[in-house]
Amino acid sequence: MGNSPKLALALVGLVLSGSLAACGDGRAGAQDAAKQLATAVSALDVGSVAFEGKDSGAANDQLKEIFKGLDPDKPAVQAGDLVFDADTATFPLNYIWKVGAEEWKYTVSAQLKKSGDKWLTVWKPAILVPDLADGEVVTRATQTPQRADILGAGDVPLVTYRPVVNIGIDKPALGGADPADSATNLAQLVGVDPAAYAQQVAATGPEAFVPAITLREDGARTVTDEQISAIPGARTIPDTLPLAPTRTFARALLGTVSEANAEQIEKSGGALKPGDTTGNGGLQQQYDAQLRGTDGIVIRAQKAGLTAAEIQATSPDPRRVLFRTGMKPGTALKTTLDPKLQQLAEDVLGNVGPASAIVALRPSSGAVLAAASGPGSNGYDTAMLGQYAPGSIFKMVDSLAMFRNGMTPDSKVDCPPTLTVDGRTFKNAEGYPASSLGSVTLRDAFAHSCNTAFINARDSVSQAQLESAATSLGVAVEAPALGSAAFLGSVPGEAAGTEHAASMIGQGKVLLSPLAAAIMAGSVAKGAPVAAQLVLNPNAGVTSPGAGSTPTAGTGASGTAPAAPPSGDATTSAAAAPATAAGAPITAAEAASLADMMRAVVTSGHAGFLASVPGEPVGAKTGTAEFGNDTPPKTHAWIVAVHGDLAVAVFVEDGGLGATTSGPLLKEFLTRAS
Question: Domain Penicillin-binding protein transpeptidase, which positions (predicted)?
C-alpha cells in the first residue's frame, strides 16, 4: 500500500499528459487548416483545400465565378485566432482588397470541423464575402468623372466637351446587305482605310456597332447624314469629347485626349484601365492626373446572370452595395493663353512651309498669351521646345554686356565689310548699307545689325560675360513659374577663338527657343527679367508635398528634357548644361538703352516696315542664323519686337533673312492684334 499513492499519481500524470498532447495536436492541425484556407483564398484558388461535404474542385469553380467581376485583383487574407468547441473550430478571416486608391476591409467567420484526424473547412459563400448567398456573385462598376477643361486667359474654355458624331456600321441594321460592301463604301466616304475597316467590321460580333471615324459636329462637317444613311447599316451616334476650338488650335502645346492604349495602361501603375481616356502630349499629358480626376468604384453583390434590363426594371435596386469609393472630378487647368491671339498667331503662320513659331507674352506679368507652332512643325512644339541658333537677335545680349563694360548707344564701334578670326572670315548680311560701315555708333551698328562690329568686341566681352548678360535678360535659366516643359536657351560659359566670335552673333553653340526670344525682348520692355508663366495652377492636382507633376522648364538639362525638333538643324542636339553664372538682373537704365537701340531698328534700320503698326512705338531686332553645310548656307529667320505691354518673337526655320521673311509675319500679327 505504500506505493499506491505514487502509482496513482503516476497514472494521473500519464492520463493528463496524454490528454494535453492529444489536445495540442488537434489544435495545431486546425491552425494549419485555417492558415491554408487564408493562403488559398488570397490566391483565389482553393483547389487544394479539404472541405466538408463539398468537392474542392466545385468549391474552387464557385469561388472563381464569385470573384470573376474583380479580376485581376486578389485579396490579402489572414486567419485570426481559433475558438474551439468540441470537434469544431471557428475563426475570423480578415480581408483587404485594393480598390483604386483605397482599401476595402472586412471580416467574415469561417468554421472547421474535425473528421477523424483531419480538420475540414465548412464551405459557404459567406466565408468569401459577408452574407453572400449561394447563386450570388461580386461585381465592380466604375463611375468615371468628366475630364476637366483647360482654360485660357479670363477662364475662357480652351479645351472643353464639344459635340462630335461617331460614324460607323451598326451590324444589326445591315439587314441582308453585305457587311464588306457597306464597310468599304463608308470607309471611302469618310476617308479611312477601306481594307482595314472592312476587316474590323468582319471581326466583330453580329450585334456590334463598329466605329469608323469621329468627326466634330460643329457645322463644318462635310460628310452629311444623308450620305451616311444611304449606305446599308451605316449610322451616326452623337457624343461629346474634350476638344480645343479647332483641330489645330495650340495642338502641340495643349496635346490631345484619346482612349488609353495598352502601353499607357501598363505604365500607369493601375491608374488607367481599358476604356479610360488620357492625355497625349503637351499639357494634356503633363497634367493628366489633375484633369482626369479619380474614378468612383462600386463593389456590389448580386444574383449571377442578372441583366441590365432586369436591374433597370426592378425597384429597389436588386443589387447590394458592399463597398464604394467616392468619385473625384478633375480640376480645370488654368492657363494664360489668349484664345484670340493664339488663333491669330496660327492664322499668320498658316501658309508658312518650314517649321515656324510665334510667341507673344505680356512683359509686365510674364503671361504667355500665344505659343503657336506652324503647320511645317508637323506637330512639334517649336514655339516652346525649339532649339535654334538665334543669330543677330542675340546682339541684345552682346549690347547689354558692352553697356556693363562702360559703353552707351552713342559709343563708337568699327564696322568693316569683313573680319577674319583664326582663319574664318565673317561678313555682314547681303545688302548691308555702305553708309553704316566704318566708325559708327553702337546704335547704328545694332540698327543695321553689323556682324563685324559685334565680333570686333570679342576681346572686351568675354564668353562668361555673354552668359551672364543672357541670364540677366531672363534666358538660359530655369523657369519654375512656367508650368510647362520648355527650352529657355543655352549659352556656354566658355568659348574661344572662332567659337567665341560666332557667339557674338548668336551662332556657335548659342541656342534659343522662340519662347526664350520673346522673354529676352520682354525683359527689355519690363526693365527687369521676365519670369514667363503659362500655367496658373500647376499644383492643383498635388495630393501630397513633393508629388507635383510640373517639370522644370529651363535649359533642357533638368525637368522634362525637350526633344530635338524634327528638322535637319544640326545645332539642335547640342544643348549645353544650365547656366551657372547667373548675372545681375537687367536694370531699368540698361533696358532703356536697349529699348533705344531697338527703336532705332525701326526708325533708321532695316525694320522700317514696322513704323506703320498702329498704337505705341515698336522696337525690334532682326536675326539671321546660318546652319548646315550647304553653300551658300541655309538660314533661320528671326525677329523680336516690343509693342507696349506685348513682346513677340517670330521664327521661321530655313526662312532666309529675318527682316524679309519673319518681319512681314510680325507686322501682320502686331497690326491685327492692335
Answer: 357-669
